[in-house]
Write a structure and sequence with these properties.
Layout lengths: L23 H22 L3 E8 L5 H8 L8 E5 L5 H4 L5 H4 L8 E5 L8 H4 L20 H20 L2 E9 L2 H13 L9 H7 L2 H15 L6 E5 L3 H17 L10 H4 L2 H9 L2
Parallel strand pairs: 1-3, 1-4, 2-3, 4-5
Helix pairs in contact: 1-10, 2-10
């Protein structure tokens, strides 16, 4: 899976948006059972947490990927958080606060559907959003430049490094969708009555900024993909393949930590037969 990892400076246009893995759905069914078993052991051990970050353009398939990849995981072991427009309370804190307070505890997998990277992505395409944060040094959009966003990326790198050192495994996925496939998926939302609710005219406005978003993604991928908190660029035009690739990377990455279930204390082990007799003779 190293082919998908950002381990050096990249040009995003060199990455494929479509790839077909045969029997991807069938293979995913086996994989998610393995992920579930790994998470059970991870939960019992209680030493590590895992943070799965998902980013992608509108319609890239984040919601359905979460549903399909984590379908078998015990509900107690996975937490999903979707980050939308910051609330009034969130805007009164620094830009990472709302992400920090919902980080997964040890033993659990946390999934961020849209992530702390929105703060160097959407706000970079729409710098006027930064004004809502009431940052003392920012008086107008003229005060917001590339240096501002690069400093934020440095802060994100430090944030993630701290999490890794504290026992959080971080895996970040950019679902790389083509503009043509996004068009097809938006049209599907309009043509199918049961999908109409997913459509917003804002999707079309953001679509016009496609190249800006791609440039921002390329910059953040190059600046924030680290060995301990890597980005993976996943071809997303075929949903089944995207789900399989993400599940594979999650499983192969978590497997390397060799989670172990804790053993029963010796003083209880020697009494196992006694405990069984007590129960059987009730």
């Amino acid at each position: 899976m190293k082919n998908y990892q950002v381990s050096k400076q990249i040009n995003l246009s060199n990455f494929k948006t479509k790839e077909i893995v045969e029997n991807a759905n069938k293979q995913l069914k086996k994989l998610r059972k393995k992920i579930s078993k790994l998470q059970d052991t991870m939960y019992a051990e209680g030493k590590y947490a895992a943070l799965i970050c998902l980013q992608g353009m509108d319609t890239s398939g984040k919601d359905s990927l979460i549903r399909e990849v984590f379908k078998e995981v015990n509900a107690r072991g996975v937490e999903v958080h979707s980050f939308k427009v910051p609330t009034e309370l969130e805007l009164k804190h620094d830009f990472l606060w709302r992400h920090y307070i919902v980080l997964p505890t040890r033993g659990k997998i946390g999934v961020f559907n849209r992530t702390h990277y929105e703060n160097v992505l959407v706000t970079r395409v729409h710098p006027e959003y930064i004004l809502g944060e009431n940052i003392p040094a920012i008086k107008s959009v003229d005060d917001i430049n590339d240096t501002f966003y690069h400093q934020r990326m440095d802060a994100i790198n430090q944030f993630e490094n701290h999490l890794v050192e504290s026992g959080t495994i971080i895996l970040k996925f950019f679902l790389n969708l083509s503009k043509t496939e996004q068009k097809n998926r938006l049209l599907r939302r309009l043509r199918l009555k049961e999908k109409n609710w997913k459509f917003s005219p804002a999707d079309l406005k953001e679509r016009k900024k496609w190249e800006q978003y791609q440039n921002c993604y390329q910059d953040l991928l190059n600046r924030t993909s680290k060995e301990k908190a890597p980005w993976f660029v996943i071809p997303a035009d075929d949903k089944a393949t995207a789900r399989f690739l993400v599940a594979t990377i999650i499983y192969e990455s978590l497997k390397q930590y060799h989670f172990k279930e804790p053993e029963l204390p010796e003083k209880y082990k020697v009494e196992i037969d006694n405990y069984k007799n007590q129960l059987e003779n009730e």
